[in-house]
Design brief:
The protein is α/β, with parallel strands linked by helices and 328 residues long. The protein has two domains: 144 residues, Alpha-Beta Complex (Quinone Oxidoreductase, Chain A, domain 1), CATH 3.90.180; 141 residues, Rossmann fold (3-Layer(aba) Sandwich), CATH 3.40.50.720. It contains ten helices and 15 strands. Strand 14, helix 10 and strand 15 form a beta-alpha-beta unit. Helix 1 packs across helix 10, helix 2 crosses helix 3 and helix 2 crosses helix 8. The radius of gyration is 20 Å and the shape is globular. The chain starts with a strand and ends with a strand. 48% of the residues are buried. The mean pLDDT is 96.
Length: 328
């Protein structure tokens, strides 16, 4: 038997709780992993609380991230004893996820834990840090260099935002960090931000075009914030969009794109191809300042604490990353 968070929905309602499960209930797949650490992401919080339509099948074990040791495998690239990690691929949505002591997953979804990281560090980074690196890679692909001007990061105290600030600083960029939590200014400056932008400047309906301010941006927020970021880009600036904390809508105009040549690059981490994932994790191993990882982790919790912490996350009370020790 193993413990997991189980999300259920039936005539009595939607609920999430700790359950003790028989391994026979695990989904069919070719690799069984003894999970050591998972994380709590925005999507996980939506799944646990039922605030969003994240879960597609019930019952479901949430958790888009996991890291642990292979127990058994029929996949040619993985054998018992291998240390592996997994981000996305429908975990916690259509396939049982990482907030569990055991997971059975497709080997094609896995990566070996990169040299230089252990399982806990790989989960401290998790989907958040990996997504942040995908955003940075997209900025580089579109030739946004430090010499061209500052890069804005919205939702900067969240997991993706925190890692984006830290990575961009290491790579030599000038970073502006947008947040609605001014009390976290010292935290963001310690990660590498040189300017703190009040969220209120971006979150309300704005003009089709604003003052040209940034050469690039990492947006985790969506809605009016994303629209205002696009409207405030410099000529041929690049915006990477990877989140929807404010909303899924995009109340913009074509003005930034046809008058300033702005590029809006969508970033999907869940179904990102394996070669791109490997590149992102290799770059994290090279370009992420290890000393910043622990400062971004706001809490390490046990499996049983995840449900309450999910509520805190949605309420905007959580900074950075939450690591879950699933065996505690």
């Amino acid at each position: 038997m193993f413990k997991a968070i189980l999300v259920e929905k039936d005539d009595t309602g939607y609920r999430a709780g700790i359950s003790e499960l028989d391994p026979a209930r695990l989904p069919e797949a070719d690799v069984t992993v003894r999970v050591k650490y998972s994380t709590l992401n925005y999507k996980d919080a939506l799944a646990i609380t039922g605030k969003g339509t994240v879960v597609r099948n019930f019952p479901m074990v949430p958790g888009v991230d996991l890291a642990g040791t292979v127990e058994s495998s029929t996949h040619p690239e993985y054998k018992a004893g291998d240390k592996v990690l997994l981000n996305g691929w429908g975990l916690g949505e259509t396939h049982w996820g990482g907030l569990s002591q055991i997971a059975r997953v497709q080997g094609d979804w896995l990566l070996h834990v990169p040299d230089g990281f252990d399982e806990r560090q790989s989960m401290a980074i998790g989907t958040a840090g990996y997504t942040a690196m995908l955003c940075v890679l997209a900025l580089e692909k579109h030739n946004v260099t430090p010499e061209q001007g500052a890069v804005l990061v919205t939702g900067a105290t969240g997991g993706v935002g925190s890692f984006a600030v830290a990575i961009l600083k290491t790579l030599g960029y000038t970073v502006a960090a947008s947040t609605g939590r001014p009390e976290e200014s010292d935290y963001l400056k310690a990660l590498g931000a040189t300017e703190i932008v009040d969220r209120a400047q971006l979150s309300a309906p704005g003009k089709p075009l604003g003052k040209e301010r940034w050469a690039g941006a990492v947006d985790t927020v969506g809605s009016h914030t994303l629209a205002n970021v696009c409207a405030s880009m410099r000529y041929r600036g690049v915006v990477t969009a990877c989140g929807l904390a404010q909303g899924m809508d995009f109340p913009s105009t074509v003005a930034p794109f046809i008058l300033r040549g702005v590029t809006l690059a969508g970033i999907d981490s869940a179904r990102c191809p394996i070669p791109d994932r490997k590149q992102a994790w290799q770059r994290l191993a090279r370009d992420l300042d290890r000393s910043k990882i622990e400062s971004i982790v706001s809490a390490e919790i046990g499996l049983g604490e995840s449900i309450e912490q999910a509520r805190n996350l949605l309420a905007g009370k959580v900074r950075g990353r939450v690591v879950v020790d699933v065996n505690r």
